[in-house]
Amino acid sequence: MRKLPLWADFDQEDLDLLLRTGAVRLARFGSGETIVEEGNYEKTFFVLLRGVGRIVRGGRLVADLDTPGTIFGEMSFVLGKGRTASVTADTPCDCLAVNMGYVDFLPSPEREDFLIRIFRRLAVVVTQRLGSANARKAALLTAIRERRQTLAAHIAAERAAITTLRRELDGLDTSDDEEVLRQLLNRNY
């Protein structure tokens, strides 16, 4: 547990207390099992230790969950509202489940200290996540812009080709040949 960045600000005594009280426990999920359900309010968030899952919001895939140490499900606790997405295990997953309801039972100074340390770590996680998402958005917007430019150039080239073909078609005068053919067909031999 100590190797995970989430717990960098905690000493071993704090970590032992979290484990003893059940505030942090190992949670195992089978393939296809829902870990977090969109809309549910819970004070538990998770740290992926092993496995692969997917994050879905409103029926659309938002992200793959495949990096050990990834924190997910924290928004419900932080925002005080229902989960913003569902997380489903694609393979068997082992996670640390962190029940923040435990904090409610700590004495005031300890509770505030604990929350400050957790929120500090969560702020780093969310900032990194936003940075990655913004970089991905920028890359996608650049790709869209490049595709539009390519498409516009392709459309312009096709229009020019069609114009050339129309000019050639307009230049073909077959009326004389049609008249000759008609005359030949009307002759009696």
From TrEMBL:
Residues 6-99 form the Cyclic nucleotide-binding domain. SUPFAM superfamilies: cAMP-binding domain-like. It comes from the Bacteria. Pfam families: cNMP_binding. This is Cyclic nucleotide-binding domain-containing protein. CDD domains: CAP_ED (cd00038).
